[in-house]
UniProtKB/TrEMBL annotation:
Keywords, in A-Z order: Disulfide bond, Glycoprotein, Membrane, Repeat, Signal, Transmembrane, Transmembrane helix
Membrane topology of the entry: Single-pass membrane protein
Subcellular location: Membrane
InterPro entries: C-type_lectin-like (IPR001304), C-type_lectin-like/link_sf (IPR016186), C-type_lectin/snaclec_domain (IPR050111), C-type_lectin_CS (IPR018378), CTDL_fold (IPR016187), FN_type2_dom (IPR000562), FN_type2_sf (IPR036943), Kringle-like (IPR013806)
Organism this protein belongs to: Seriola lalandi dorsalis
Protein name in the entry: Mannose receptor, C type 1b
First and last residue of the signal peptide: 1-19
Fibronectin type-II domain span: 153-200
Domain C-type lectin: 214-319, 343-459, 484-599, 628-741, 769-883, 1003-1101, 1137-1252
Organismal lineage: Eukaryota, Metazoa, Chordata, Craniata, Vertebrata
UniProt cross-references to Pfam families, sorted A to Z: fn2, Lectin_C
Keyword Disulfide bond: yes
Length: 1261
């Protein structure tokens, strides 16, 4: 099964760090049961190979089938089925190491005597399944998370197995792809046509200046952990940048993940361990908001860095420079005269004389060296463990950015290959703090003003020959042993199992080494960190009790230094790592053969006697002693102490001189103390936030689960029935009580001031936060009533537009235990809209939400437990949240136009303010015709508009005749001005249509019924002649006319009432409106929308034409990839939908350039013709919403924006999806990635774009 990358750091949080050590492999395995001697899956008495695959499924590759079960009941047979990633009957998980269970169920696979597999409710010998040849279970293996590169799936995970052209594939295939291996994203490729290339060596580009190799995944949209996993699966890491030359090389045209991540101990650091010595943060970044723990490069600000929540989905850059070279141990340590101490070819001297940074450097230079340069974790460990360094020291080191602001270098010009910053102490941008010192118990680094006075550490090369006055370092230890403190240490020369190593140490009157504190661990790092072996045994294990680790020589564990993913639920023995992640601890099978470290008390050394139990340090009033530790603790849940977030709780503990409590043992006395303290406050659950060091763990049965990828801190839940399962991972902004610890005998300092809220509360109960006001309505109401309540207060149900706003609101309701209505509509088609009409820019749905249960959950609530959203029946009664801003929208009403009155003489036709008469009975020259017209009180007609041109078709009532203005004409038209209109009241034949005006003012529905009484419909304008004729009727009447065009009931799609789709349009500026559903032709001939209840004249039409039926068959193929990248691999791929293919490109460009690029592919910027196409495009751009806010589409304004919006490919605009307050003044249109709304924009903002092309008849593979 998949092993998640949740790491437990030393003194608290569960942080989204990278997997530093993934001990599992994705290779196939066979599962056997010792009790029966049978295999789980076998064919012809031969065991079949099994491997984990996507979706927690077990794949049998030889059969291309997955392990499944008939049902969720005892006795259901376990067999092989067609793989289905959506089936809950094919998902498995491990229990007790070697037991497989149906995921989420207490139903376990059991092998029976007749070699069949069934589900059982209990666990016995027949349930234990081990990998053949080992004692390990299936969960010691994992599946390879293979993220696709390029293709059309935005970098999603490959799905194995998948079916392509009726054939199953359990791995990448080159079928139909010119030897490029690829994978499908869904089990059935034909269901979505989503695919991507499998990573190969050809995807990379070499930087000739540095030799580094890069992979630019600009078309992907993945979270930070997914991006990191994708890079790691290729033996690389996310991009790290350690100097301006590497920064200058970064390109890509879109927002891209880097390897920067916020570490709770060291602050910002690169995930691959490269030094954080160069900074290129954008102005105002990194943001201090909760959850903004990862970073991107943004092309809109010259690829400066910006912090971002790790759950956002953008592209990414992978980086590698080949295998990382481990620090090498010097062949000879060298010799140093007293008081200098030798280590790895150098001499070191700690000097506590107070000097400025420059004075300290001069002192070191005079001694033949320089300020110390610390090049790796081994040297860092040596400095804090073997030079007499004290936790109270503040000592200058050689790191500084005096030469180039934001670029730190060593004063001796050695390469910066390691950094160890203190959290929050590296200034982002300053011209004052240019020098660095080392301080604190862990020896982390801080930038300070160079003129401050501190002690310092010097370093110089060691001598090749003895000087005669060297400091003797290993007094009291045998030859070959190294001394640290009061103890001697020895490195075993041969690899041994844990038990063998333990016995070998015992034979030399020593024991496998224990580690009491960080300084001891640092010494071990300095001792073995540079050696070529990967691991060295320590004396820690949980062989006897999986829930508790103990040392060989003592049960008390005071310190741990676990690697990421460790210890998890593993049972085994502990070894210390070397190399890049030197000093971290892994749990390994005790049968592994590794070298080891022995330890014993040095000769002549005297341990500090244990303090007399008669007079132990006392705890301050109100504090209780911690069992077996020299600490006291206190529970803060009194009413006078407001509950706090994890960060606020830790600040409180540190201010009074302690820290959040850490738990290191399961002694019942200790548990009883907590039980007594907590139960005295309440009989129900008391939640206490803790600081954890994971030597001992008491996870709740379903934890840690990192729900919704936001639970990075840990709480203590004390149940009166379940003492043994008390830890749970939670959101760090959760309000809880807390437990502080402080050294026994220490008097707590005064507590900090109460936490000042970041909002104000008005006298009438409104919360004022960041320019908006919020009101928590505690009355239970249905949604409509709740909204009415808000509107009475000049507000509306709340809109939530950011993570920060969501957390703010959640924190206000977290103690209420009630959900609250928010102002979100949930449509049946899966779309969301805010009730106040604002765009949906942010969503925070809970797992498996929205679920549209019973198709009646069309409203949304925010939960008090985590602040996530659920869809809900609008009629249910809940509390609610109102929101308002400081300004109200202005309303304006346009005064109606007063229609002019007038008419024409007999036999003359009125048009606007003119009357026309056509003379067919005689022929005249142009001059003669003009003379006769003048004699009748008019003149020869002048054609000043398309409507006047169309008028002459009405005169002739036959095939159109375009009258020419020439010297000689055959017929001529008189024109004169006169005042009273006439209206035809019968049907007029226009080609296959018959058209009639209904002068009675009716609303749209009534007008349609009036036409139906004539066996007609409101008119559909499907050709130029009927269009012009109807425009003339509107003009002649000087009155708007309803036509048969209306929005559909389910979307913003205009269709004619008689079933015809639009083939032409003449929309007015700003039309069609978002909020009006019915269409009329106005007196100026332009099409406009209005409320369907408005009464106006209408026009009916009969026709003999039959509307075409829509096809459900869309044959054809998409073209090959439009271009190859500059890095040798396809950049993106066409995605089919109905009769067209689409290219979604995330590279930033302006609208004209985007249009030109589409033309180069034989395509155009996309048009959007109906709701289904809108939904298809919206689903695809939504994938990129965290990296691209919008994409260019082919909609633009003609005549410099003063006339109408038109589609570039000439598609008629019968569908719109304008965002709120749109269209605006911009000339070109975009589709918003977050909600699919259309917006107008100027041409120069750089955005992604979407190309569209008709499917072709053939495709070349």
């Amino acid at each position: 099964m998949r092993i998640t990358c949740t790491s437990f750091v030393l003194l608290i949080q569960i942080c989204p760090l990278q997997c530093l050590s993934c001990v599992s492999t994705d290779s196939p395995f066979q599962l056997t049961n010792k009790a029966t001697g049978s295999c789980l899956v076998q064919t012809n008495n031969k065991c079949n190979d099994i491997r984990w695959t996507t979706g927690d499924r077990l794949l049998i590759q030889q059969r291309n089938k997955c392990l499944g079960v008939q049902g969720k009941s005892v006795g259901s047979e376990v067999s092989l089925y067609e793989c289905d990633e959506n089936s809950e009957l094919q998902k498995w998980e491990c229990k007790n190491e070697t037991v497989l269970a149906l995921k989420g169920q207490e139903l376990y696979i059991e092998l029976t005597a007749d070699n069949t597999a069934v589900l059982s409710k209990t666990i016995g010998p027949n349930n234990h399944l081990a990998i053949s040849g080992t004692s390990s279970g299936a969960c010691t293996r994992t599946y390879r998370e293979l993220y696709a590169i390029s293709g059309n799936a935005a970098g999603k995970l490959c799905m194995f197995p998948f079916m392509y052209r009726d054939q199953w594939y359990s791995d990448c295939t080159t079928a139909s792809s010119e030897n490029h291996p690829w994978c499908a994203i869904e089990t059935n490729y034909e269901s979505s046509n989503l695919w991507g290339y499998c990573p190969t060596n050809s995807d990379w580009h070499v930087n000739p200046a540095t030799g580094a190799i890069y992979q630019f995944n600009t078309q992907s949209a993945v979270t930070w952990p997914q991006a990191e996993a994708s890079c790691k699966q290729q033996g690389a890491s996310l991009l790290s940048i350690i100097n301006p030359y590497e920064q200058d090389y970064v390109t890509g045209g879109s927002k891209l993940w880097t390897g920067l991540i916020l570490d709770p101990e060291h602050g910002w650091k690169w995930s691959n361990g490269r030094p954080y010595r160069y900074m290129k943060w954008d102005s105002g970044y990194p943001l201090p908001y909760p959850g903004h723990n990862c970073a991107i490069v943004d092309p809109t600000v010259q690829y400066s860095w910006q912090s971002l929540p790790c759950t956002k989905k953008v592209g990414y850059i992978c980086y590698t420079k080949g295998p990382e070279e481990n620090p090498k141990q010097a062949v000879e340590t060298g010799f140093c005269s007293s008081p200098w101490i030798s280590y790895n070819g150098h001499c070191f001297h700690l000097n506590r004389t107070q000097k400025t940074w420059s004075e300290a450097q001069r002192e070191c230079v005079l001694e033949g060296g320089d300020l110390v340069s610390i090049r790796n974790v081994e040297e860092q460990s040596f400095v804090i463990s073997q030079l007499g360094y004290a936790s109270t020291d503040e000592l200058w080191i050689g790191l500084n950015d005096r030469k180039t602001e934001g670029l730190f270098d060593w004063s001796d010009h050695s390469t910066v290959s390691f950094t160890s910053w203190e959290f929050g102490k590296l200034a982002v941008s300053t011209d004052i703090k240019d020098c660095v010192l080392i301080r604190g118990e862990k020896g982390n680094w801080v930038d300070r003003v160079c003129d401050e006075r501190h002690g310092f550490i010097c370093m110089k090369r060691s001598a090749s020959k003895p000087t005669g006055d060297e400091v003797e370092q290993d007094v009291g230890c045998k030859t070959g042993w190294r001394k640290h403190g009061s103890y001697c240490y020895f490195i075993g020369k041969e690899t041994k199992t844990f038990d063998e190593a333990k016995d070998d140490c015992k034979s030399s009157d020593s024991y496998l080494a224990d580690v009491s504190n960080g300084v001891d661990n640092a010494f071990l790092v300095s001792l073995v960190g540079m050696r070529p072996e990967k691991f060295f045994w320590l004396g820690l294990s949980n062989q006897k009790n999986t829930e508790e680790f103990v040392w060989n020589n003592t049960d008390i564990v005071r310190f741990t230094h676990w690697n990421a993913e460790m210890p998890g639920h593993r049972q085994g023995c502990v070894a210390i790592k070397t190399g890049i992640f030197s000093g971290l601890w892994d749990v390994l099978p005790c049968a592994n053969k590794e070298k080891y470290i022995c330890k014993h008390l040095a000769e002549g050394a005297v341990l500090t006697p244990t303090p007399s139990t008669l007079n132990p340090p006392k705890c301050a009033d109100g504090w209780s002693p911690v069992v077996l530790r020299n600490y006291c603790f206190k529970l803060f849940t009194e009413p006078s102490f407001k509950k706090r977030t994890w960060y606020e709780a830790r600040d409180y503990c540190m201010t009074i001189g302690g820290d959040l409590l850490s738990i290191h043992s399961a002694f019942i006395v200790y548990e009883t103390q907590l039980n007594r303290l907590c139960s005295s406050k309440s009989l129900i659950i008391i939640l206490c936030l803790l600081l954890l060091q994971l030597q001992f763990q008491h996870w709740r049965y379903d934890a840690p689960n990192n729900k919704n990828n936001v639970e990075f801190c840990v709480e203590y839940q004390l149940y009166w029935r379940r003492i043994g399962e008390s830890w749970n991972d939670v959101h760090c902004e959760t309000y809880r009580g807390w437990l502080c610890q402080i050294l026994a005998g220490v008097i707590p300092k005064p507590p900090p001031d109460p936490v000042t809220p970041d909002y104000n509360r008005s006298l009438d109960g409104w919360l004022e936060w960041k320019g908006n006001q919020y009101y928590l309505n505690s009355k239970l109401m249905a949604m409509e009533d709740a909204r009415h309540f808000c509107q009475q207060k000049h507000a509306d149900l709340v809109t939530i537009n950011s993570e920060a706003e969501s957390v703010f609101l959640w924190k206000q309701i977290s103690n209420s235990y009630w959900p609250y209505w928010i102002g979100l509509n949930v449509d049946l088609d899966g779309t969301f809209t805010w009730m106040d009409g604002s765009p949906v820019e942010f969503q925070r749905w809970d797992e498996k939400q929205p679920d549209f249960q019973n198709n009646d959950e069309n409203c949304a609530i925010i939960t008090s437990s985590m602040g996530f959203w659920h869809d809900n029946n609008c009629g249910y009664e809940h509390r609610s949240i109102c929101k308002r801003s400081g300004s109200s929208p202005a309303n304006a009403t346009v005064a109606p136009t007063v229609p002019p009155r007038g008419g024409c003489p007999q036999n003359w036709k009125r048009f606007k303010s003119k009357c026309y008469n056509i003379i067919n009975s005689q022929r005249e020259t142009w001059e003669g015709a003009r003379t006769q017209c003048k004699a009748m009180g008019g003149n020869l007609a002048s054609i000043l508009s398309r409507h006047e041109q169309g008028l002459f078709y009405d005169f002739s009532r036959k095939l159109p005749f375009l009258y020419s203005i020439e010297i000689y004409i055959y017929n001529f038209i008189h024109q004169k001005y006169s005042p009273e209109p006439t209206v035809p009241i019968e049907y007029v034949k226009v080609f296959n249509d018959s058209i009639k005006v209904v002068t009675q003012p009716l609303n749209w529905d009534a007008a349609q019924k009036r036409c139906q009484s004539d066996d007609a419909n409101l008119a559909s304008l499907r050709n130029g002649w009927s269009e012009v004729y109807i425009e003339l009727m509107a003009l002649n009447l000087n009155s708007p006319l309803w036509i048969g065009l209306k929005k559909t009931q389910t979307g913003r799609y205009f269709t004619y009432v008689d079933g015809w789709h639009m083939t032409l349009s003449n929309w007015d500026t700003g039309e069609p409106s978002v909020n009006q559903d019915c269409v009329y032709v106005d007196v100026d001939g332009r099409w406009k929308t209005a409320n369907c209840n408005k009464k106006m004249t209408s026009i009916c039409m009969k026709t003999t034409d039959i509307p075409p039926t829509e096809s459900s068959d869309f044959p054809g193929f998409c073209p090959e990839d439009p271009e190859t990248t500059r890095y040798g691999r396809h950049k993106s791929t066409w995605l089919p939908f109905k009769g067209h293919c689409y290219l979604f490109h995330t590279g930033s460009t302006d609208w004209p350039d985007a249009s030109a690029k589409c033309v180069k592919y034989g395509a155009t910027l996309t048009s959007i013709e109906d709701p289904s196409e809108q939904q298809f495009i919206q689903n695809n751009v939504n994938i990129y919403k965290d990296g691209e806010s919008a994409f260019w589409i082919g909609l633009y304004k003609t005549h410099k924006g003063t006339v109408t919006l038109s589609w570039l490919d000439k598609t008629v605009m019968d569908y719109t999806n304008w965002d709120v307050s749109q269209p605006g003044k911009g000339i070109y249109a975009t589709i918003e990635s977050s909600n699919g709304g259309w917006r107008t924009s100027r041409q120069w903002p750089n955005r992604g774009y979407i190309c569209k092309i008709t499917k072709g008849e053939t495709v070349t593979y």
